[in-house]
Amino acid sequence: MLLKFLIFIHIICATIWTGGHLILCLTILPKALAKNDFSIIENFETKYERIGLPALIILLLTGIYFTTVYTTNLLDLNFTDHYTRHILIKFLLLISTLLLALHARFVLIPKRALKPLSRHIILVTILSVLFVFVGFSARSGGLL
What we know:
- The protein is built from 4 helices and no strands.
- It has helices spanning about 1-35, 40-70, 80-110, 115-140.
- Keywords: Membrane, Transmembrane, Transmembrane helix.
């Protein structure tokens, strides 16, 4: 029962994380680019971070828990195992997301570099959708 509850919480947090990035990418970013106004992105991020960052932390914690439940030994890197393959793909997506976030936070945002930041926003949005796809694939029996 605990596992099903955590899967539900994980899905809710994935919805918050991915939905927020889709809203940012598809509605907020075009306005900011059209007006060449970095503050539009800042205003959205300030509001979204209150729910987006806790959702991300919960995703990380539940993801780590799922790793311990669904894989016998992740370090074997056994790509023939259904869950191990999906978890390793999710870890690659996570590392990519974290690298983009760190670069944005410490390089692009201080410079208020809107155009390069827009590429990061698009990439993180694509990665978040891929996270959902890989999670769906893992739970549905495998598309990957």
